[in-house]
Specification:
single chain; Jelly Rolls; Phage tail protein beta-alpha-beta fold; 3 domains; 13-stranded mixed sheet; about 30% strand; elongated
Length: about 350
């Protein structure tokens, strides 16, 4: 902006209409900056008009000239105001656009929930709280998929083994998909095992009630209502569903970092140990499977657990069995038992 002296030198030509458009705009903006500039411009207007009409000054004509100047000033003020509005709008455009994008993202995110995946690494367990408040513990090398927000039903996808403590919501069933099997509950505690590469899906009920649904051969579905202590094992290869009873005190001890055996068969013990440490046992002597064991292992490494079996029984373990299963479908380390 030019100095006041420079602007005041332009005022005579301003009121006589001799300034260029650019100079006139500069004077307009200067006049609108303050009341003092406005008074100065009015005085110049009166002086210029009187000098131009020395012979017969007329107050009415002078006032008319001043009204013309005021009109020009108001017009200039409006232009200045609109110019400021445009500048503000330009400054606000980007934040408003970003805010609109954020709200749109929130809207579509809520309408189209994204999926959450929880993994437990080999040899470790993991825990998660689902959007409805249900709690889940994942055994070693397991994966759980669930939406960030449940809809009319609460559905999750399991690979591996998990213990569920489901928040009771009678209007929204809780459904676990494990391979082709589905377990539906309203509020209960149960364990589902369905590791990739395994030919079995195993479901154990701790308390409450669940409905186990399986696709049977011939296109007909099989549905079983389970009671506490029930364990159903579905063989995917044969389609056979077998039933057994579990020890409610030890069925899900793995979620507390323990392996609890109470008069447990070797077959069941090796299953629990295998899931806990992500290993697969290949038993070469079936007679060993009928032996039963009692003991509790808390936080011990795999080598320590197996060494205990070796010292207290006739069982031996061979870790170096490469080539036994070249494809290694399950992805687990294999240990020979003999």
């Amino acid at each position: 902006m030019k100095s006041n002296d420079s602007i005041e030198r332009l005022l005579p030509d301003y009121f006589s209409g001799k300034l260029s458009v650019g100079e006139g705009k500069i004077v307009d903006e200067w006049v609108c900056e303050s009341a003092e500039h406005r008074r100065t411009a009015e005085e110049y207007c009166r002086l210029e008009y009187l000098l131009a009409n020395m012979e017969a000054p007329d107050s009415n004509e002078t006032e008319a000239a001043l009204r013309n100047v005021h009109s020009r000033m108001r017009s200039s003020s409006r232009r200045s105001f609109m110019s400021n509005v445009q500048r503000i709008a330009a400054i606000m455009a980007l934040p408003l656009f970003l805010m609109a994008c954020w709200f749109a993202w929130q809207y579509y995110r809520d309408d189209k929930p994204t999926e959450v995946t929880v993994n437990s690494v080999a040899g470790m367990t993991a825990a998660a709280t689902l959007p409805d408040g249900s709690q889940v513990w994942l055994n070693s090398n397991s994966t759980l998929h669930y939406p960030v927000r449940f809809g009319d039903t609460r559905e999750v996808q399991l690979e591996g083994e998990a213990y569920f403590k489901v928040a009771r919501q009678e209007s929204r069933p809780f459904i676990v998909h494990a391979k082709d099997a589905t377990v539906e509950v309203l509020g209960t505690e149960f364990d589902v095992e369905a590791y990739p590469g395994d030919t079995q899906v195993r479901t154990s009920l701790i308390n409450g009630s669940v409905r186990l649904s399986l696709p049977a051969k011939g296109g007909l579905n099989t549905s079983v209502t389970m009671l506490p202590g029930d364990c159903y094992t579905w063989n995917l290869s044969t389609g056979k569903l077998s039933h057994s009873k579990i020890n409610l005190n030890t069925a899900a001890s793995w979620k507390d970092g323990k392996i609890v055996l109470e008069n447990t068969s070797l077959e069941e013990a090796l299953r629990q140990i295998g899931n806990r440490f992500n290993v697969e046992f290949l038993v070469r002597n079936d007679e060993l499977l009928t032996q039963r064991y009692t003991g509790t292992f808390t936080g011990q490494r795999l080598e320590v657990v197996l060494e205990h079996f070796r010292r207290t029984t006739r069982i031996h373990f061979d870790y170096d069995i490469k080539g036994t299963d070249p494809q290694n479908i399950t992805g687990r380390q294999k240990i020979l038992v003999y």
